[in-house]
Amino acid sequence: MSMEAASIAQHCKTLRLSSIGTQFASLAEEASKQNHSHLRYLEALLQAEVEDRERRSIELRLKDAHLPRIKTLEDFDFAQSPHIPASRIRALAEGGYLERAEPVLLVGEPGTGKTHLATGLAIAACRQRKRVRFTTAAALVTALRLHGTNPPRRTKRMFLARAPETRKPLTRPLLSLWKTTRPK
Q: Of 10, 14, 20, 145, most Cβ neighbours within 10 A?
C-alpha cells in the first residue's frame, strides 16, 4: 500500500468513513479504467458509503427491535389465511399509521400468523428508518405487574409508543383489529 493510500485509509478511519476506506482503491482503479471524471469517482465513493450506512442502520434497528425471528411480509401466505386482508397489510407496511401515531393490534387464535405479520410490519418500519420494539402482551402484563403504573424509564421506553415527530402519547383508536380463527 502506498503512502497516499495509507494516509487516505487513516483519514477515513478518523472520519468514520469505513466504506470509503475499504473501497476507494478499487473504485479508483475502476474509474481509471473506464475513464471516469473525478466527480463521478467521488459520487461512486459517497454512494457506497451511504448504502453501507443505510444497511448498517437497518441491521441495528432490527437488532434493537428484539424480533423473535426474521419473517417478512413477502414470506406470509395470504392464500392460506384468506380472513386477513392482504391489501390492509400492504397499506400498513407503507407506514402511514406511524406518522399518524395510530396503534395496530393483532388479535386471533394461536397459529393464525399474528407474530409473522407483526414481525413483517416491524421489518418494514425498520426499512423506513423507524425504531421499533417487539413485545408480547404477556411481557407487557409482566412489566406492569412488576412495576405498577410507574415502571423504570428503560421499561417504559420498551412499551410506551409515541408519535415520532410530536412525541405525544398515542391517543387515536385502533387502526386495525380483526378476529381470526385457526385454519382447518
A: 20
- Output the nine-digit C-alpha cell for 14: 478518523
Domains and CATH numbers, the chain: 3-64 (no CATH), 73-159 (3.40.50.300)
Q: How far apart are CA 159 and CA 26, in angstroms?
A: 46
pLDDT at residue 117, as a whole number = 92
Q: For residue 78, give the C-alpha cell.
A: 395470504
* pTM of the full structure: 0.67
CA-CA distance, 61 to 122, in Å (whole number)? Answer: 10
Residue indicated by cell numbers 387502526: 175
pLDDT digits (tens, 9 = 90+) for 51-78: 999 999 999 999 998 888 899 999 999 8
Which among 181, 179, 174, 182 is positioned nearest to 107, based on CA atoms?
Answer: 179
Please say if the pLDDT value at position 145 is more than 90: no
Task: Give me the phi and psi of 169, to 5 degrees please.
Answer: -65, 155
